[in-house]
Specification:
With 106 residues, this protein is of the alpha/beta class. It is 34% helix and 26% strand. Strands 1-3-2-4-5 form a 5-stranded mixed sheet. Strand 2, helix 2 and strand 3 form a beta-alpha-beta unit.
């Protein structure tokens, strides 16, 4: 996952909230089937959108951040811009659905 950044509670503020680019965060877990199904699509989005930073956060290892952002179901995809969460989608979206969601920040 060369273009996908792995974030945790220690670097979330720096990598997501303080990013100069809009950020898509995939909140996921290792045991989650739909999360695994979505992973190749997340990678494609990261490869194709150079004006977007793409990150993944394991909710099991980073419960405090997941709770802070109200993550109750996974996969949950959140868009951040200028340090603010500006959009949320839940579930394994198709690539087209994900692209449409991302256009909110462009």
């Amino acid at each position: 996952m060369s273009n996908v950044n792995i974030v945790n509670q220690d670097n979330f503020d720096q990598d997501v909230l303080n990013s100069e680019k809009p950020v898509l965060v995939d909140f996921w877990a290792e045991w989650c089937g739909p999360c695994k199904q979505l992973a190749p699509t997340i990678q494609e989005i990261a490869n194709e959108n150079t004006d977007l930073k793409v990150c993944k956060m394991d909710v099991d290892s980073n419960r405090d951040t997941a709770v802070k952002y109200g993550i109750r179901s996974i996969p949950t995809l959140m868009l951040f811009k200028n340090g603010e969460a500006i959009g949320t989608e839940i579930g394994a979206l198709t690539k087209q659905q994900l692209q449409e969601f991302i256009t909110q920040v462009k």
